[in-house]
């Protein structure tokens, strides 16, 4: 499966199949929330949250690809990511794009 953020693939003609998406809501445990909250007092990267968001993007992408595979897509173009806070310490990640096959 070819994944691109552009709306075309150079040298390829595409037939668009439709939108595909994948999402997840992730949170860290209470201990991580407390330690990351204390980190905000001194500043710097919140590594536990960075890792959480990386894992969430990976899972959302995997789910989007699975949806594309179910449509027999060969590529997903125009991939985008969105995130939103669901509650304190929990975030939703949405990956979406357009499934396509090569002509």
UniProtKB/TrEMBL annotation:
InterPro entries referenced in this protein's UniProt entry, alphabetically: UPF0145_dom_sf, UPF0145_YbjQ-like
Pfam family, one: YbjQ_1
UniProt-listed Gene3D superfamilies: Hypothetical protein apc22750. Chain B
Domain of life the protein comes from: Bacteria
Protein family membership: Belongs to the UPF0145 family.
Name of this chain's protein: UPF0145 protein BXY41_102265
């Amino acid at each position: 499966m070819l994944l691109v953020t552009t709306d075309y693939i150079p040298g390829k003609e595409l037939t668009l199949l439709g939108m595909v998406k994948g999402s997840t809501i992730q949170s860290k445990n209470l201990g991580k929330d407390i330690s990351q909250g204390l980190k905000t007092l001194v500043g710097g990267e919140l590594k536990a949250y960075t890792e959480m968001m990386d894992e969430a993007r990976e899972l959302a992408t995997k789910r989007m690809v699975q949806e594309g595979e179910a449509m027999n897509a060969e590529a997903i173009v125009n991939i985008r990511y969105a995130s939103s806070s669901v509650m304190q310490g929990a975030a939703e990640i949405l990956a979406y794009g357009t499934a396509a096959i090569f002509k």
